[in-house]
Amino acid sequence: MEVNQLNLKTEENNKLFFILFIITLLMMAFVFMIACIFIFSSRRIYKNILLIIFGSLIVFLCFIILGILILFFSKSNKKTHFLFLKWMNLSFKIFYPFIYIVSQSIRIDKDKVRRLYTQINNYLVSKQKIPVVKGNNILLLTPHCIQWAKCPYKVTNDVMNCKLCGKCQVKDLVELSRKYDTGLSIVTGGTLARQNVVQKKPKAIVAIACERDLFSGIQDVKSIPVLGIINERPEGPCYNTRINISKVEEAILYFLKGGKK
Ligand code: SF4
């Protein structure tokens, strides 16, 4: 996968992430100010308890904010010590829901914010030290809307039912999985995707889906590196979707080469 495709640090993402981060911080500061007024006007017996809780919350929040700043200013394409990575990951996972709520309150397109989630996830994976993963330990996971809607063959049961006619990109994915000996699952929903991961126990996942499904899917898989690739929907959602196949190949190669591009 090209550096920029993995990377959080594209102009557009940088800007959106930073703006949302600042707005979220301002809103938090406002809530804390209200809390401060409440604490100092409360009766003495509660005041000390509230101050301790409040103080601990502020310290925790500073820890999270610092983690986000490290994530934001960390150098692209440089591997990070796993403790820093854990810190950035934790900070991002804790802070992201606030960013999401704030983005919705100011009516930013949900998909834009969810896309940011996938891209930051990919960025964090790119900073992880990953061992070389064999092809048969890599799972390509894609929703069945990538299949031509009129295709009579059921590829969700067995991808090898595909006759490789080329009317949809299932053909390309089957060929890629054969070329690199990876697993390939075409699933009808999130539950089946999760079941596939549990059954096949991959060591790395290349997940293809829309912003919403990647957002929830990546959160479900905690211990396996997942590179998310957002699909294209030229005919609308969930219908004859498409994927940039070279991005899928780059993601496979990324894992095959142990995280080297
Ligand atoms: S490439 Fe495979 S899945 Fe797609 S339409 Fe042809 S036979 Fe069906």
Strand sequence of the main sheet, in spatial order?
A: 2-1-3-4
Q: Note the overall shape.
A: elongated
Number of helices: 9
- The class by helix and strand makeup works out as alpha/beta
Rg to the nearest angstrom?
Answer: 21 Å
* SSE string: HHHHHEHEHEHEH
Bound molecules: iron/sulfur cluster
Q: Tell me the strand percentage band.
A: 5-15%
- Indicate how many domains the architecture comprises: 2
Element layout with pairings:
Elements: H1 3-6, H2 11-41, H3 44-73, H4 82-105, H5 110-126, E1 138-143, H6 170-180, E2 183-187, H7 190-200, E3 204-209, H8 211-220, E4 226-230, H9 245-256
Parallel strand pairs: 1-2, 1-3, 3-4
The structure holds iron/sulfur cluster (SF4).
Structural overview:
InterPro entries: DUF116 (IPR002829). This is DUF116 domain-containing protein. It comes from Garciella nitratireducens DSM 15102. It is built from 9 helices and 4 strands; from the N terminus they run αααααβαβαβαβα. With 261 residues, it is an alpha/beta fold. It folds into 2 domains: 3-124, no CATH class; 135-256, Rossmann fold (3-Layer(aba) Sandwich), CATH 3.40.50. Helix 2 runs antiparallel to helix 3 (44-73), helix 3 (44-73) crosses helix 4 and helix 5 packs across helix 8 (211-220). The protein is elongated. The model is unreliable at 1-8 (pLDDT under 50). The structure holds iron/sulfur cluster. The site of iron/sulfur cluster has 14 residues, from helix 6. Iron/sulfur cluster is lined by residues 147-148, 151, 153, 155, 162-168, 170-171.
